[in-house]
Structure formats: C-alpha cells, structure tokens
Design goal:
The complex is a heterodimer of chains A (about 425) and B (about 475).
Chain A (H helix, E strand, L loop, with lengths): L2 E6 L5 E6 L5 E8 L13 H8 L9 H9 L4 E6 L4 E8 L3 H13 L5 H19 L2 H14 L12 H6 L2 H11 L5 E7 L3 H12 L20 E6 L5 E8 L8 H12 L5 H9 L5 E8 L4 E9 L4 H16 L5 H17 L4 H15 L5 H9 L3 H11 L6 E6 L14
Helix pairs in contact in A: 3-8, 9-12, 9-15, 10-11, 12-14
Chain B lengths: L9 E4 L5 E6 L5 E8 L13 H9 L8 H10 L3 E6 L4 E8 L3 H13 L5 H18 L3 H13 L13 H6 L4 H9 L5 E7 L3 H12 L21 E7 L5 E9 L8 H13 L5 H9 L6 E5 L7 E9 L3 H18 L3 H17 L4 H13 L6 H10 L3 H11 L5 E7 L5 H5 L4 E5 H4 L30
Parallel strand pairs in B: 2-6, 7-11, 7-12
Antiparallel strand pairs in B: 1-2, 3-5, 3-6, 4-5, 8-10, 8-11, 9-10
Helix pairs in contact in B: 1-7, 3-8, 9-12, 9-15, 10-11, 11-15, 12-14
Classes of the chains: A alpha+beta (about 425), B alpha+beta (about 475).
Chain lengths: ~425, ~475
C-alpha cells in the first residue's frame, strides 16, 4: 500500500501524506476544523457561506482565474462544509501539485471578500438552501438533526437559515474567518504520487507565515437526543422519515462494532431492514441506516420513504429489528457477512487517491494518528457478537429515540404518542 | 505518462460469438467484471418502456440455483458490489470485488446471465417498486424537466422515453415480458465480458470460456433505428406547478452521434460553452456575474443516434425570464462571435490533463473501453486521444457552434409557477401550457394493482450513512 508521513509546521499546520507511486494523480485537501457546529444560532450558515466566498477571488486571482488555472491543467477544485470541518480540495496530475497547493493556499491565505461578490454569492447560497428544501430525502435529514439535537449547534443545517444568510455582512464574515480558519485548525492531507518533503516545503512557503491562531476547539458538549416525535407537513407523494437514537463518537473503542451493526441492520442489500421491509414486504422503495460520528457524540438512524397508509407498519418493523439487535439476537452468519462487506468496502476505497486523502485527514482530525489499513482490518476482524451487543446497548436507547417525519401528514394523525425500544 | 495502452487490452471471440476482453491492472488487489449486452432501452417494445431495465434487474433476482437473497448474501460475503441496469444501446451486469475472489464473482455473474428464473413474485415486486419510485419522483420538478426535454427532442425515436419507463408502461408489463425480452435480446454474439484487475488474462479467458463457452442463443435481429429530427423554430413548453419557488429550465436541440468524427471537437465546444465547470461561459455569466443560479451546465449525449444537447439550470421564479434571456444571448454570442484562442487552449489543456485522471480506477477504465467497443471505435482512440484534442482548431469549434447553437431552433421546457413568467415567455414563441398534475398523473391500471408489493428498483443500492475510515 502507500507510505505514510506526517510533519507539523511551526505554526501548527499538520501535513499528512500517503505516497502511492503507482498513481498518476494527487488528491490534496486543506481541512479546517471549523464547521456549522462552530457557529452561534445567528451565525448559522457562515462557514458554508465562507466556503463559497473563498472561491470568489484573492489578492492575486479573480474567481475566474481560480477555476481556470486548475481546469486548464485538467484538474478539479472544489470544497465542502461539514458540521465539524470544512475541506478545500483539488485533484491534479502529479506534475501539477505545486499549482494545486498554490491555489488552495491562496484562497485560504488571501481572500478579498469583495462586497459585490458577497452579494452575488448570497443569492447563489439562498438557491442552494431552496434546492435542499425541495429534495425531501435530503431535507428530512436536516429536520432530523434539528429535532434530535434541539438547539445544540450540531442540529443546525449546514447551509444555514435563509434569514441568517440574508443578514450576513462583510465585517462579520471577515471576523469569523480570521478567528476560525487559522493554522492551528488546519490539516493538509495529500495522497497519490508525491514526495512528502517537497509537499511540506510547498505548504511552508505558502502558509508557513500565517499566525497560528487560538489552539483547541471550544465547543459546547453535545447532549442531544431527547425522545421526541416531530412532523413537518408538506404535500408529497410519500412520507419521508428518520428514526434514530444516539450514536457513538468517532474515537469510540467500539467504533468498528458500531459500523458493523449499521451494516448488518441497514447498510447493504442483504441487510435486515432492506430484506425484511423492502424486499420481502415491499413497503418502501428506499430504506437504509446510518451512523454519523462526531468528536464527542454520534447519531444513529434509519431513513425510509413510504406511503402514509404503510407508515405505521414500517415504523413498527424498524423498531422490531432494533429491538432484536438490542436483545443481542444476531445471527453469526449475518455478522460475518457484514464484516466481509466492510472489509471489501475498505479495500475498494483505496482505488482512488480521493478516498485515501479523505481517510488520512479524518483519522488525523479525530484520532490524531494514522490508522494503517492492516490495523483497521485487524480491528474489524476482531469484532465479536458481544461487541455488537455492547454497542447496541449503548446506542439503542429509548430515552434518545427520535422520529422526524416529512410529508402529507399532521401531528394529530400519528398513531403514536411515544416510542420505545 | 498515460497508463492505459490499447495494446494492453486483450480481446478474443469464442466460437459461440461471445467476446472476452481483459486488461491486467496490478496496482491494487481488485477485479472489475462487466457483462455488456449490446442492446438496451432503445429496444423496449412500444408501450412497455422500461422493460430492458427491468429485465436486467431480473437477472439478479433469482437463478435456478440461488434466490435473490442468497445472491445478495453471497456477493456481500465476498465484500463485492454488483448491479444490473440498462442504458441506451446496452445493458450491463457488473461486479467489483477483490481479485482473489475473481472466480467466485464470475460464477455468480454467469449464473445470473445464463440461468435467471424470472420468478413471478420477484417480477411483481420489482414492477411495483419501480412504480412507487416513479410516484415518488413526481415530486421532483427537475426530474420532470429532464424527462420532458428528452421526450420532445427525440419524439419518434425509441430514445424518447426514460430508460426506467413510465408509470403506465410499467403497469402494462406482464409476467412473461422480461423473459421474452431476455430470449430475444440476450445472446452471446452481442455480449462482451470485460475483466479488469489484478488478474492474468489467460486464466480469465479460460475461466470465462468454461462458464459461458457453451451458451447458445441466436437472439432476434435488430430493427434499424429511426433518425431524430432537429427542431426547427422555437417550441416552448411550460409545466405549471404553482407551489414551486424555483423554475427548472431546459433548452435543448440535438447533438451528434457517438461515431461522428467531430465527437472530440464537439466535446471541446461544449466544454467552453457550458460543460466546463466554473470557467464555462454559461457558468461565468449566469452564476458568477449575475448570481442567478447555483448551477448551470450544458451537456450532450451521443449514442447510435444524435442525442440531446441540453442546457440545464434552475433559478428563483422571478429570474426565469432573465435567465432564459441570458442563455439565448450567450448562444448567439457564441455562434456569431466565435471563441478566443485562449479559451480553446485552456479547454484543450483540460481534456489532455484530465484524461489520465478519468482513467484511474478499474471502473473508469471499464466504462471507457466498453464505450469504444459498443460503438465499434478502435482502441487506438485511447492513444490518439490527446493528440486529437491538441489538433482541434478554432475554425472547427466555430463551425460547430454555428451549426449547433441556434437560439431560434430550440425546445424550451420550464417547470415552475407559470403565472409569473407565462406572458413574457410568449414574446419568444408559442407556448404550450401543461398542468403539472397532468404530466404526473397516475393512469388507472388496466388490472387491479397488487397493493402490498414493493416500491423501488434493485439497481439502486441503499445509501448507508457514516463511513468507516
């Protein structure tokens, strides 16, 4: 596989790389540990807005130059915002790494936040918000997060609220950026055909002069997940819903067991939910489970879309499956198949430099170290039935059981007052 | 520099007509196996649109030896991914797994290809899943806009319908239909097996020969495909949905066939106009300068026939007219004013530089190789590609722009709140107004539906959240 190296610059920027000489490409990402979780209620949407604005021009490049320069060597550049990080990334041929670093560093070190560009991008972001709201199977996840975490920032929508986006002004944007996009929060991750030291030198040249900024992350502890049922009425063909409980943090000792549980419950086509509810009974078109982990908390859930008439039956069947797993009644065959599936997924994810880069960065951000694939596979191999029972007991907790629904349905029409496991 | 050499693609034909192709790729312990049948949704019988795709799925829903659950479990025990689907011109059955499992994977795929049982209960469930998916999709204005522009552009050809069919066509399917389609169209002479991975081609060949060498089936001859007619004049279709806050906008004409010699120049022209990410003319004007939209793009689909060449975007209702106006203006500027040398050079550099990046994984290589095989394009296309891009001239692009970007000859589809833009739209031509409910109406079934059978389409696997890093 590839060879891993890490260097920390004087100002705190961590550079982690995996050299894979057989690749033609290099995927490169500058990750900042600032996301929607680091916003106040009034700031909600700022980190996503800033992600957009950083592409709108620097002291030496216009917005057009940024995209043109990278595209004219056949590369690509983009960014995404999460709840606990924002990532600016590029993929280029190995000969163009210096250009990619130059551009990514430039947009982070020298953005101009031009007032006219802010106004234009505000309109673009408002459309992105509407686009999410117009996509029920996306929007239900935003609603579920809000319902599960209550007023905690983990519950904020990443794109922000429309009224916030309308209110952001340049000084506020610049202050947020200066305070939260600093070297101490930066991880530069790269994978592919590269030379670690050359890359470190490039990062040092481009970003080494930046002031480190405040260390550590001041975040409100996440205590979300009080049992509740919420409905958002909208005229739709189907009722979309998420049903979930607390999950586990990213660095939890049973994280491999957590993901195995997620896989055997609703992570693939032979999973219990997929087979029982979709294949055998045909009650949904789409059903899956998810386990999203954060620095100090997590969220485990099941998404499904069904008809109003079949809603009660689908929810009852999901609860039944959750109870079965919680009671430790899992088949050894199912456990082995889920582990094999995850093993395959982990190996298959190595086929592109993008997957490797993302894995490097997340392990650095959440675990503070590199996890070689062999070590991860070994840990997965060791997951036992008891581990699944233990993690199920920890996650599948009636006190945090939340149900959020979106569709042509009113709260008064629901057949349940409360739910339990 | 370029990792995929035509000479490395091995190809043989068995005595039953089946083609076996292989590419040894030893960088990762993976195997990507595709079975391509050179007949797809364009062979759907009239009134049974979606049958090719349903037939492909049925292969994965039970064989003489394994039921659907067992197939899923055996694949997942190998840690493999698999899918089956039909697109234009071909159907696919494919799997990605570890190279050490190559034999087990191909045995499962071979079982699906040769011994499907087309079980009635699976057929009914799939049919119902698909209908439910389409009912669910009726909420999505962008899907309706995409379907309508293709329908209007390709009317009179077998490419005018969605490959997954329509609610009424799915309702019309009978138990025997997938089997009939299979017997008519699945045959060794039109089937290609491609294996890419950490494999030895000699072993691949012998193993596939052992699995599929005895397959006998003639398949019916294919009828010739009608040629679509390029739009003359402007035809505007408005689909009225008063609750929408944004309009979905599509402007389209026809592009070129895949085998057209101008395919590479056409790609370059499309890139500069609207296909090229943030630096395309459409994106720069409509998103970056005007801030009208989050995204705008132009794209074309080249197949055995000249497919759609479509500009797609969405915008708040109040901007609808301004956005269309800008697009028409840009088309005119592009066709009349031509392009700059710098734009051409940058576009060429993009295609030259991105070519290796787009052939990095076995799956990406498989798509490229199979496309060449499907359209009977020699594999040296791969080694000539970068030179061919370099050779594209300003004159070629300007000629293509003049020939294919005619703001006066277009189909325009707008899905949105009609009262806010209907009148000004009429200034550009006659408008056909259709109610959204009419487009998405569920026709009454000709037989009572089985109300307790599944929604969905098996080719879509669940989307598990959370990634184990």
């Amino acid at each position: 596989m590839g060879s891993y190296k890490k260097t920390t610059l004087k100002n705190g920027i961590r550079v982690v790389t995996e050299s894979v000489p057989s690749f033609e490409s290099v995927s490169l990402g500058i990750w900042i540990t600032t996301g929607s979780r680091d916003e106040t209620a009034k700031e909600n949407g700022l980190s996503h807005f800033i992600e957009h604005l950083l592409f709108k021009g620097t002291e030496k490049r216009s917005a057009f130059d940024i995209s043109r320069e990278i595209e004219s060597v056949g590369g690509s550049i983009n960014a995404f915002t999460g709840r606990e990080y924002t990532c600016f990334h590029a993929k280029v041929l190995h000969k163009d790494v210096a250009l990619a670093i130059d551009i990514l560093a430039d947009i982070l070190a020298n953005p101009v936040f031009d007032p006219q560009e802010i106004e234009k991008e505000r309109m673009v972001v408002l459309q992105e918000i509407k686009m999410v709201e117009d996509t029920p199977d996306d929007y239900i996840h935003d609603l579920f997060y809000r319902s599960f975490w209550g007023d905690h920032p983990l519950g904020y929508p990443i794109t922000g609220m429309e009224e916030n986006v309308l209110s952001f002004h340049r000084e506020q944007i610049v202050a947020f950026f200066r305070g939260k996009y600093t070297p101490s929060k930066m991880v530069v991750a790269a994978a592919g055909r590269l030379n670690h030291q050359q890359l470190v030198d490039m990062v040092e040249t481009q970003l080494g002069h930046l002031h480190p900024g405040p260390c550590g992350q001041r975040r409100e502890i996440a205590e979300g997940g009080k049992a509740r049922i919420k409905v958002k009425h909208r005229e739709l063909e189907q009722v979309h819903f998420c049903l979930g409980t607390k999950g586990i943090p990213y660095d939890h000792r049973l994280r491999f067991a957590g993901h195995t549980l997620n896989t055997l419950l609703g992570g693939n086509m032979s999973s219990r939910l997929f087979q029982e509810i979709r294949e055998k009974r045909g009650l949904t078109y789409s059903i899956y489970s998810f386990l999203n982990s954060y620095a100090d908390a997590g969220l485990f859930g099941v998404y499904a879309g069904t008809t109003k008439d079949e809603l009660q039956e689908v929810v009852a069947l999901i609860l039944q499956e959750l109870r079965t797993i919680k009671a430790g009644r899992i088949q050894m065959d199912d456990l082995l198949a889920a582990k094999e599936y995850l093993r395959g997924s982990m190996i298959l994810s190595l086929e592109s430099s993008d997957g490797r880069m993302s894995r490097l960065a997340k392990n650095e951000i959440y675990l503070g170290r590199h996890i070689p694939l062999e070590e991860a596979l070994q840990e997965l191999e060791g997951v036992s039935g008891q581990d699944i029972a233990d993690v199920a007991k920890e996650m599948l907790d009636s006190d945090t059981l939340c149900l959020t629904l979106l569709g042509t349905i009113e709260e008064g029409e629901l057949p349940w007052k409360g739910l339990d496991l | 520099m370029f990792p995929l050499q035509p000479k490395d693609i091995k190809k043989i034909r068995l005595s039953n007509g089946l083609t076996i192709m292989g590419l040894e790729y030893h960088k990762l312990p993976l195997a990507h196996i595709t079975l391509m049948i050179k007949r797809g949704a364009e062979r759907d019988p009239e009134g049974k649109e979606g049958l090719a795709d349903l037939t492909a799925e049925m292969l994965t829903l039970g064989t003489e030896h394994r039921d659907s659950q067992r197939l899923a479990l055996e694949m997942e025990k190998l840690g493999a991914r698999y899918s089956a689907s039909s697109g234009w011109d071909a159907s696919f059955l494919e799997a990605l797994g570890l190279s050490e499992d190559f034999k087990a994977l191909t045995e499962l795929l071979g079982d699906m290809l040769l011994r499907p049982i087309f079980a009635q209960h699976e057929m009914k469930q799939s049919q119902q899943r698909r209908i439910s998916r389409l009912i669910q999709q009726r909420d999505q204005a962008e899907v309706i806009a995409d379907e309508m522009i293709v329908q209007y552009l390709l009317t009179g050809t077998p490419y005018a319908h969605p490959t997954y069919g329509t609610i009424s066509s799915l309702q019309e399917m009978r138990e025997e239909d997938p089997k009939s389609f299979y017997l008519r169209h699945y045959c060794p002479k039109d089937t290609v097996v491609l294996a890419i991975g950490d494999l030895n081609f000699e072993e691949v060949r012998e193993h596939i020969k052992g699995l599929l060498g005895e397959w006998k089936s003639e398949g019916a001859s294919n009828d010739p495909l009608p040629t679509p007619v390029r739009p003359h004049g402007r035809r505007i279709i408005v689909v009225n949905r008063p609750d929408l806050t944004q309009s979905q906008i599509r402007l389209g004409s026809l592009g070129i066939e895949r085998r057209d010699d101008r395919y590479i120049p056409f790609k370059v022209m499309n890139y500069i106009f609207g296909g090229g990410g943030f630096s395309s003319r459409l994106m720069q004007r409509v998103r970056a300068e005007k801030g009208y939209t989050y995204g705008i793009t132009s794209s074309f689909k080249a197949s055995h026939i000249a497919g759609p060449f479509v500009i797609s975007t969405f915008t708040p209702t109040a901007n609808t007219i301004s956005v269309i106006e800008e697009i028409l203006k840009l088309m005119e500027e592009f066709a009349n004013g031509g392009i700059k040398t710098q734009e051409l050079e940058e576009a060429k550099n993009y295609f030259i530089g991105s070519f290796p990046l787009k052939l990095e994984t076995p799956g990406q290589m498989a798509r490229e190789i199979l496309e060449l095989e499907l359209y009977d394009i020699p594999f040296d296309y791969l080694s000539r590609y970068q030179e061919a891009v370099k050779g594209v001239t300003l004159e070629e692009i300007n000629n293509l722009a003049r020939s294919y970007l005619h703001p006066e000859d277009l189909i325009i589809v707008v899905v949105g709140r009609a009262e806010d833009f209907l009148e000004p739209l009429r200034n550009w031509g006659e408008v056909e107004l259709i109610e959204y409910s009419e487009v998405t109406r569920v026709p009454p079934p000709s037989t009572p539906p089985n109300t307790h059978l599944p929604p969905g389409g098996h080719t879509v696997s669940p989307s598990p959240g959370g990634v184990l890093e």
